[in-house]
Amino acid sequence: MRASVYVATSLDGFIARPDGSIDWLNEADELVPEGEDCGFRTFMDSVDVLIMGRKTFQQVLSFGQWPYGETPVVVLSHNSVEIPSHLPASVSCCSESPRVLLDRLSAQGAEHVYVDGGNTIHGFLAESLIDEITITRIPVAIGDGIPLFDPVGEDIKLTHLHTTAYDFGFVQTTYRVERNT
Ligand SMILES: NC(=O)c1ccc[n+]([C@@H]2O[C@H](COP(=O)([O-])OP(=O)(O)OC[C@H]3O[C@@H](n4cnc5c(N)ncnc54)[C@H](OP(=O)(O)O)[C@@H]3O)[C@@H](O)[C@H]2O)c1
Predict the structure, then answer these.
(1) For labelling, which of 10, 11, 86, 128 has a CA lying 20 to 30 Å from the CA of 143?
(2) How far apart are CA 48 and CA 46, in angstroms?
(3) Which of 4, 7, 38, 56, when mutated, tests ligand 1's pocket best, judged by the most ligand atoms within 8 Å of its CB?
(4) Is residue 146 in contact with ligand 1, taking CB distance under 6 Å?
(5) Does the C-beta of 90 come closer than 6 Å to ligand 1?
(6) pTM assigned to the model
(7) Alpha carbon of 119 to ligand 1 centroid (Å)
(8) Using one digit for the tens of pLDDT, what is the confidence trace for 47-85?
């Protein structure tokens, strides 16, 4: 089982403003040429299950169109989450711990999971369950927000795998996470 993070951050390391808004990211997307997705489609094609936190789920619902097709999506919450009826049957919710959830998905045949959402990513990193992180840095500093890395967590050592600098200013880097033994 391989677990990955694929996320965009401001240059100062935030995935969203403190209130969860991503206006700065939507604005930056206007710089991106038609048809360019920075490899997101290829990444999604490699994903068996997307695990996302409840807050990210609610924000994605506000986008209108469901962006994940039939890819199985597990929404994490400590409470039951209402899954709108227009979403595919492959969308479910659970309150399992990261370790228990990964073991269940692995037993069900999943080989590659994508973990999304600030607090959710922090939880999986804290349990050393993330193998790879792809960060697309947006050329804007927003000063405050939800950090990609939990400010109170242990040091996380990473190994650089590759970087792509796009001529529209985005810089995308993939790292392997060195597991705490
Ligand atoms: N820049 C990007 O690429 C990017 C990507 C994704 C998201 N975002 C941003 O990230 C923000 C959301 O991040 P966030 O940190 O606020 O929240 P989040 O991680 O999306 O959701 C947090 C919630 O998920 C549930 N949860 C997480 N881990 C759990 C566990 N182990 N067991 C049970 N429930 C668990 C809890 O829900 P309950 O409170 O219901 O118990 C928790 O409050 C959004 O504003 C979105 O814009 C940005």
Answers:
(1) 128
(2) 7
(3) 56
(4) yes
(5) no
(6) 0.96
(7) 5
(8) 999 999 999 999 999 998 999 999 999 999 999 999 999
